[in-house]
Here is the input.
Amino acid sequence: MEQFLERAALFRGQVFPAQSALYERLASHGQSPSALMISCADSRVVPELITQANPGDLFVCRNAGNIVPPFSQANGGVSSAVEYAVMALGVRDIVVCGHSDCGAMKAFSNPAALEKMPNVAAWLRHAHAAHSVVCNAYHGLDEHGKTRALSLENVVVQINHLRTHPSVASAIAQGKLTLHGWFFEIETGQIQAYNGDTGQFEQVYEGQPLPVAQRPAKRMVAADHLGIAAE
Here is the structure.
């Protein structure tokens, strides 16, 4: 731990002074991040570094496999983070970020490795829909290809899970929230974004429109039937 303590000392002595006004403002006025990022806990994936976010810019929730369990009344850290980010912080964007060489997704190819990790195995059941898609819709892939396909499909599955959360469903229907699916290439630093209109991941280029998974769109599907004027 000595190296981390040394770096913490360097931060306090060399980095913090240049940003002291920012931290003072955050401490006195609170946080108002514009986005929630749900990413994998993999040590190689650092959301704040990838996005070059400043303190206070990004609300981050990390876990094995960038999982978002479907909504239930059972309390959980990811569900609580989503609810708090949308309802208390008013974030306008949620990003589910997967990545290459994901150990959580590799585990599906080697279930024996999880025999002594029952909690991890139970957690990864939330990605079984993606695993089923890859097993039944993809053919002729080697192990590397399967892991990559599973990692990409898993992002889509977790976005679908996000839509089951009442806070998310309501914010989307009010036109206040956009959902994003990203895939980070560790080896190249590139990001691909899921395009909900085409159903494909697309390379992100600087200065080009960002593909999104779910655009904010006000809707009241029952308005015409109930004689209600949509706002």
